Amino acid sequence: MIDVQRLRVLRAVADNGSFSKAAAVLRLTPSAVSQHVAALERSVGAQVVTRSTRGVTLTQAGQIMVGAAESVAAELQQAKQQVERLSTGRVQLTVATFTSGGRHLLPGALPRLMAAHPSTVLHVREGEPEDTLPLVRQGAVDLALAYHFDGPLPVGPGPGAGLRWTPVMEDPLHVVMEEGHRLAARRSLDIAELSAEPWVLGCLKTEAYLRRYAQQAGFEPDVRGTTTDYFFARSLVVAGLGISLIPSIALVPTVPGLRAVPVEPPAPARHIGVATRAGRDHPHVTTLIEALREQALRPSVGSSALPVALLEEPHRAEDLADRGVGHLVGNPVCPDVGP
Question: pTM for the whole thing?
Fold first, then answer.
């Protein structure tokens, strides 16, 4: 018999990379964590972690057990919600979102959800996809409004199975510059034309993405400023520090004195969608996803955002590789802040 508590401990070890860090999260001693893992290894008859001076890594057996731990946690959470629904008649729905998606997509979609399901008790939490997608797998949130660039979904340690990805919209990045800039009147720009420009960026992920495109164009971008706030980045562009690369939905509201110019194909873009657990069809979740896709079609979301609500069917996270998706560029993390 596999002990659920030992699975929980293993998941904490996988999330934190060491016994000591997992112990701090679980409020146990490192020795107790080690004992739980050793007991789990005895019960499954296989080594689940590899120990070294740099921490611990999961073995193949350990990855399987972490996947099982997440499934168990999700099942227990769902059972708890069902019992609560029986006793209160209310449905608890927890939604995770990145900041600009939460600001420009989620508020317009919530009225339809509440009109269709007035007994819903809604909880919203903010976070980047690498933080929120594992929570979907674990059952801690019901769905996550998230994004990725041209790499796989950042689902965290362990197998990527178990997530269903429903596309909401394509969110192309634009070059933002002062209205008086020599290239401001252009209808579109090639990244190679910007090799001599200084840059101010509103997200470390965007910087990594720019560097990749710049490398393909044969130059090294001169980055003068990096922030974690797209609105702050646009303020620095107004101040004359440089130009920027900003997603469409983060261009609202507009800033006087600036011009946003589309990038010529192959144009960089964020792929925005909703992640849910595969095989968990929930009417409240379905309603909210439909409302988010409708909201993405509204002009107020972003003047150049391209909805893809009717172009693609939902697909599982592990299928992204079959669609020509490569590896995520770098591992920078930043909160997607700003308007």
Answer: 0.69
